[in-house]
Amino acid sequence: MTIKQRLKRTLGAGSLLLTLCGCGATHLASSGESAEAQGYEKPAVRSSALAPERYTPADWPAPLNAWVRLPETPNETRRPAALIVHGGGWRGRSPSDMEGIARKLAGQGYVTVNIEYRFAPRYRFPAQLFDLQQAMRWIHDNAERFRIDTDRIVGVGYSSGAHLVSLLALASQTGPLAKPYGGEHTRLAAAAVGGLPSDLLKFDDGPLVVNLLGGTRDEVPDAYVQASPIRHITPEAPPFFIFHGNRDRLVPVDHARDFYQALKAQGTPTELYLQHGRGHIAAFLLRGGAIDAAIAFLNREVDNGR
Questions:
Q1: What's the rounded Cα separation, in Å, for the pair 165 and 158?
Q2: Cα end-to-end span (Å), the chain
Q3: Using CA atoms, how far apart are residues 193 and 208, in angstroms rounded to an integer?
Q4: Are 120 and 211 in contact (CB under 8 A)?
Q5: What is the largest CA-CA distance in the chain?
Q6: In whole angstroms, what is the distance from residue 49 CA to residue 37 CA?
Q7: Residue 4 pLDDT > 60, yes or no?
Q8: How many whole angstroms separate alpha carbon 287 and alpha carbon 275?
Q9: Is the pLDDT confidence value at 83 over 80?
Q10: Contact partners, residue 296, CB within 8 Å, separation at least 6
Q11: Residue 22: pLDDT band with limits 50, 70, 90
Q12: CA 66 from centre of chain
């Protein structure tokens, strides 16, 4: 008797399905019905990867590359694009972590731009956000070449990448973090973020955040406020899809719940997808259902913006 057969005999078919699929999810939508339920996933298309290209200016403190993937959509004059940002505690990992997500998004017709950014502690915040702002400038500068509709650029990130994408969406058009590299070109049509540290003031003075901001909450309190996406929510916020493991101990799930409630309270279209029984890493590695729901959400928002 196989392990699967033994589980089925012990648990029953319904319980077996939950066990094999990671215990399911809770999916909330501010509009009452999710984009996935509304059927916004499209038939998949093929895509091709380009060689990495430098997206930062020649005088930038570090040369940073973007990996672009182009969908095969010859009948579309202009396509949506997705800026994709990896996690790693602001101090490591690489765009290769997000390649699977880039392939799925390109399969849905997005030009994907999967980027590197500078790491802490050598580079302190807001250096990483400035990198994303430069990436958005590069996307706009190459919009004709890649056939990108610059009004339909979305941001996608996980963990520290989700943090940076959220700040790009909320704080890069106006205000202190918009200077000197932000502005209108950083505007996103929507964002999909997972494992989001939405309020850095909630963390103890651990090394990841201290290395990013250059001090503890008592030493640099203003930096903690400026670096917290939830502190930048305004009525101009773009639509957000948020996914999170409900057993995340690195970034507790209240970061996601509070962020969702704050966006919902002011009428911003938003969805929250809570992955049952998953911690921070498992929520990323076992992300299939969350990413499918996120892409449906992004599809709806970029289609509505046409």
A1: 9
A2: 55
A3: 19
A4: yes
A5: 65
A6: 31
A7: no
A8: 8
A9: yes
A10: 34, 35, 36, 38, 39, 40, 41
A11: very low
A12: 16
